[in-house]
Amino acid sequence: MEDKKPDLMTEINPVFLTAKSCLGVLARLKDEDALKLIGKLGFFESQAAEEIKNAPKDKLEIAAKVAPAFYSQVETRFFATNEMMVNDKNAKLFLDLGCGYTPRGIKLANSGIKYIGIDLPAVINTISPIIKEFIGENANINYKSGDLTNYSSIIEALGDNKGELFITTEGIMNYLNSFELKEVISNIKRLLKAYGGKWVTCDNTLLASQKYIIAAALGIPPEKSEMLAQMGNNMATSMAKIKKFDNVFVDKDLEKCKKFLNDNGFDLNIEKGSKHLPKMIRAIAAFPENIAMNMRKVLEDMDFWIITLKNDAKDIAPYEGKKFNIYLKREEGIIIIKLEGRLDTISSKIMIEAFNDESKKGNFTEIKFDLGNVEFISSGGIRALTIIDNNLGNEKHIEITNRSEERRVGKECRSRWS
Description:
Layout: H1 8-12, H2 19-28, H3 32-41, H4 43-54, H5 57-86, E1 93-97, H6 104-110, E2 115-119, H7 121-135, E3 141-145, H8 151-158, E4 165-168, H9 178-195, E5 197-201, H10 203-218, H11 222-236, H12 254-263, E6 266-272, H13 289-300, E7 303-309, E8 325-331, E9 334-343, H14 345-359, E10 366-377, H15 379-390, E11 397-401, H16 409-414
Parallel strand pairs: 1-2, 1-4, 2-3, 4-5, 9-10, 10-11
Antiparallel strand pairs: 5-7, 6-7, 8-9
Helix pairs in contact: 2-3, 5-10, 5-11, 10-11, 10-13, 14-15
């Protein structure tokens, strides 16, 4: 059977594929809204079946051991964060950056909370019409396409909404390289400066506590569970051909992250999971009572970071990014492509489609990309250039000109196109 070629947006940035796993976990735990969504989307069952068929036996055995522990963390993070928003007296809007396919919007909107979920077009174009089908027209819930590294796309998604924000970045921070992390942090600072509110996350502390929840589930010392935690993490990302980045925000040494936040003008308040934990955690319900109790203690001890902007934070420069533009011309069998602005996941699709249209005319042996006016290039932008390069064949090649180390363009491009 011929493999189905992934769509262009999936090739440019496959990170959103990992978002399917959270929905899959909630559905396995019999959450009604998640079951409805997954039944309509249909992608998880077929994908899971394919992965199980191709997975080595030893990996399946490891997955069976560690899965309930991972499930309990996903369940705790999801429902505790919802609970925090429901009980927040000041926040006017839940801003879910990298919202994925979860039923969070349904649950919060049904509780009368205004919710905006922002994610890549591949996600939003799929989830938005299905949510509307389930709950009809509801002014409390909106899904918008955007890129977390692109402030303009976030502001456009927020529209004319006002009031304090409750921001989450659930499950996304460990997929950012250091350049993307800097952009996302700057964007969250701008949002908190403009709207007020808080950013809530437990992604870094969740990673730190994984070995303890696995140890509690298996009844082994934490030092013996660390390798299982790492293997489980690797399997969790196998569905997308991406890697997790060891950026400072998800460093094992949490003190480094705390210093990073402080240096960037943030205050940090830490609340324990015990304050927001659901009464029943379905992922641990099937365990013997003593093991379930030990697992719950680990989850109660998991830290949720409440991040706000310091009162004396330095003024943040207004965002003045150039609009993305692409200019194409030909000179003696060379296609010259001059880019301007940001080359991120959204603009990369425009670039590839423009190149494809031009290349269909034939009669060229080389492509020159002029990146002199590119302000920022994301992982998606690098993948887009790689897609073009891979599709050229051996007789044509790419040349990158005017790259800059300061804008991250030079370092990434030099590794492939020196």
